[in-house]
Amino acid sequence: METNPKLKVLLVMEQCNPEWASVPLVGYNFYHGIRKRVHTTLVTHVRNEKALEKVREDLEIVYIHESEWVKRYYGVVARMTSKGGVNWPLQHALSYPVYGEFNRQVYRRFARRVIQKEYDVVHAMTPILPRYPVKLLKACREVPFLLGPVNGGVPFPEGFTEVARKEFARFNFLRIFSRMLPGYADTYKHADRVLAGSTYTKNMLKDLFDIDDHMTLFYENGISRDFVGTPRKSTPETLRLLFVGRLVPYKGADMVIESLSRLGDRVRSGIHLTIVGDGSEKESLEKQTRDLGLEQTVTFTGWIDQNETARYYRDSDLFCFPSIREFGGAVALEAMAAGLPCIVADHAGLGEYVTEETGFKIKPVSREFLVNELSDKIAVLFENRDLLCRMSVKAIDRVGEFEWERKADRLAEIYGELVEEKAKVKNAVGQKIGTDRKN
Q: Given a cut of 70, is residue 435 above it in pLDDT?
């Protein structure tokens, strides 16, 4: 691990919390690594204070408070968009004023200090969705500005219109309004570098803003080195399948269950599927299991604490996760870290994490195609345990690239690169001005 304690980084993370899941936890994992490599000032929302103070040590953290009206407003939005399942497109759109207040307060408190070059780099990381402007960019005249990784905007596959309907995809048109937000386009066009969390998002932003030279592919998800296990050298007679995720339509647990019903009797009697998670589809999935006569083949655990899921990975042999709209897919990394080959839908994040050596990727042409292919690939690995074990070895090798410590090392390198690039530009401008004066 290379460190540069003299390098001062202003790290803006609206979401950063070691006790929460999803984006807040991703943000914290990055912060935990970054702060060991450079001098870091973390700027985050006050909602994270209670958890961060437990692990703060003597580091500088600035908490941004919100007004009473924003608290009340967010409560109304949360209630309004959570009826009959969470309407994420509408909630993201209506929640912008909450981020907007945070964005303005960060600018008011830190713009002068950035202009006076109290920091060497300004890095805005969360929220990760690529729809938020960063006003502090205006102050980064001589200080490099780094954005991301940003990830999202992935559409549903064409063959899954019914799932898209259940996930309120008709509200996705609201994304276009984020492009009208003051400073949104400038944030991407004038950033010194933008990190994209997936190839899809990288290409989307490249086309949207006609930018390419300052964009870098940098996956946002990672894995703790402590989570990485050892490859499987053998498997038990009963092949143990695992699904981990929220039980909502687009995650595809229903397709895993149906794929088991299409297996031959001998294979079906020699497998067992454990579904870890909870959500709006749980009752429907349990009914599907009963209707297909798979009560002895499928086990539902319900909600499990994040720290407890490691045990389920260790006690399984194969990870089945045909989610059709996964931006990142951290669960696939967790599965590979435990030495599990993965069968996933080849769409966005999952298709980039899983390789042909670590599992099977299935094009989500249609639900019928995906279910049939899933059933076929399960049967292949049931019959060919040597192949499963070889994939297990490759899965462990692959996931090493995603360890948080390695990702933090790379970010520290990027900070150094940006400082050097900014200095070269400044010197070039100075030389040109000097030449012009002589002429």
A: no
The arrangement of secondary structure in 225-400, i.e. its CATH architecture, is 3-Layer(aba) Sandwich (3.40)
CATH top-level class of 4-222+403-438: alpha beta
Overall pTM > 0.70: yes
Distance separating alpha carbons of residues 421 and 211, to the nearest angstrom:
18
* Owner of token pair 């012009």: 436
pLDDT digit string, tens, across residues 149-195: 999 888 888 889 998 888 887 777 767 777 778 899 999 999 999 99
Q: How many CA atoms lie within 13 A of 332 on its CB side?
A: 29
| Residues linked to residue 122 through DSSP beta bridges, in sequence order | 10, 145
CATH topology identical between 4-222+403-438 and 225-400? yes
**Contact call for residues 148 and 122 (beta carbons, < 8 A):** no
Going by their DSSP bridges, the two strands 359-362 and 342-345 should be labelled as: parallel
User: How many Å is the Cα radius of gyration of the chain?
Assistant: 23
CB crowding 73-104: b at 16 or more within 10 Å, else e:
bbeebeeebeeeebbbbbbbbbbbebbbbbbe
**Spatial CA neighbour of 335 closest among 409, 262, 232, 254:** 232
Domain boundaries, the chain: 4-222+403-438, 225-400
